[in-house]
Amino acid sequence: MKPRVPMKTGVESKLSGLLPPLVSLLLAAAVSAVILLLVGENPFHIGSVMLSGSLGSLRSIANTLEEATPLIFTGLCVAVALKCGLFNIGGEGQLVIGAFAAAWVGVKLTGLDPVTHVTVCILIAGLAGALWALIAGVLKARFGAHEVINTIMLNYIAFILTNYLVTLPYFKKPGQIPQTFDIAPSAALPRLSFLYQYTRLNIGFVLAIVAVILVYVILEKTRLGFELKSVGFNPTASRASGISVVRNMVIAMAIGGFLAGMAGSERVLGVHRYFISPFPFGYGFAGIAVALLGRNNPFGVLLAAIFFGALASGGAQVDIETHVPRELVTVIQAIVILFVACEYLVRRMGLMQLVDLMRRMGLRRRGAGAHE
Amino acid sequence: MNDIFAVFGVSLLWATVRKSVPLIFASTGGFFSERAGVINIGLEGMMLFGAFSGAIISVTTHNPWLGIAGAAVVGGMIGYLHAIATITLRANQIISGVAINMLGVGATIFLCQVCMGGERSFSLGPVDRLPLWGPFIPLVYLALLVVGGAFVFCYFTIPGLRLRAVGEHPRAADTQGVNVNRTRFLAVITSGVCAGLGGAYLPFFSGSFTKNMTSGQGFIALAALIFGKWNPLGALAACLLFGFADAFQESLQGRGGLPSQIFQVIPYILTIVALTGIIGRSTPPSALGKHYERETSK
What we know:
The complex is a heterodimer of chains A (372) and B (298). Chain A is an all-alpha fold and 372 residues long. Chain A has 15 helices and no strands. Chain A is globular and about 65 Å long. Chain B has a domain at 21-218. With 298 residues, chain B is mainly alpha-helical. Chain B contains twelve helices and two strands. Chain B starts with a helix and ends in a 22-residue tail after the last helix. At the A-B interface, α5, α6, α11, α13 and α14 of A face α5, α10 and α12 of B.
């Protein structure tokens, strides 16, 4: 399925491109408020708890950024593939494979200095994720097998595979819980405890920002990025002009897998410090929401990831303080996705016409000014 | 090895059927939607909605039949949501499916906690459960009826032919006077009804609703549909195969030998192999995933 690539001309359409996500967020907020009213809760109260839980203190802000970190990676993972016309919904599996690889190298490789050890762990995790994604990429490029179905299947295979590996005595920490030994201290990503003493926010967040910039540079400033986007926009024309469709599809999947694998390494090296099965689920799918809301733009992805991070940490606070369960956040996420996907609705609601009208009025004023 | 053979027997056969029923319902649901040209990866979410609504209605009314009916209606409503998003509002079918799956996970736990005072699971009392007809609950027989019905409908009736035409070549169907979008709407709603019933089987079989109780069965049903080459009887065979793998893996547990993960992974690997076409290629309906707009003479 080809994603719709909006034709952009100048700053104006870039600004109006921001509108559908914002309107979608407003609509999602309204629907969530109605749901809360229906179950007899005060939406304003829940909203204020959510706000204080996500932005109210240094601790909340640290939580928000910690929740946002894996979403930045998985959001980029989905966005890069979408730019090439592919739907990588296998971020979940690529993340889990990366997480396991990071734990493996983090536990078993010892005697390295911290910088080398962490670097090796992250690179191996990224490569493992990339390899996992490559399976779907190659099957798509070579056999035309639909990457959506294959990445879904690979998600489950990844979960079952790691669930098996973690029980092997070579990896498993003795005890009832299926988890690996703790990683060596040299493999741990340092936490940013200057923000808040007990935070699990770590250097991985900085790496995520670096990834955002790198992906932006690759997509916008390199030949590779041009070819990727060209294939996404029109594979037939790309092929005719000598761009290898197969090669670019495979590369787009691999880059995405690398990013998802990095997300897994961030979770293991920075947050949990071991691999556990089942591994916390949902970052990969939330990455789809992040990429959509961020309109596949790396910086949009960053903003959207922080927004969903804030929702998650606010949701945790709501869970503690009120009777509303944290799954409210999942519901809100789903509603946001639905509205963003139904851009047509947003356009039809007359809001776009309003923008057009305002723009035309602006133009007219400029035009009138020129006459005088 | 003796242990492995010892698990074969009538009980394994019954267990295979029991494991297959939710898959059969859901993959038949997927069949309707996908043959009409609408991708439905939201089966998992629709099943979860069916499981929760079936259980909660049965627990509150003490009438399991109402629970079943409710699950079908709620499943149909979620199908309607998918149809509005993808057909009326032209949303990407995959994205809408992903959203429905998320909604299924979030909303069922959310509602469960709201209805049950913070609990994330609840049990069905003896009066809330379906009676046994022979070795199975009635839904098992209904599943077979639904598959048979889907097969006869799609290959031996005119509306069925139209449904397939809409999924293969909507423009040609439109030219013949078939209302493409209405056909797709009905197909996607039917899809939701079937998936809802498949989900409802789970609490009525196990006697309780637990969070996330479908645990990926919607995706296995999708896999069965693909492995069965988008044909209801093929999908039925695939569901029985996957159900057998699951039942076999469960009966082996605690007997040592092979790790159970080998059997869990079978459906997923077979599906990938089927899609590559190494062993008999599985080809989707040609218009799958494409929006249809009539040409307007402006």
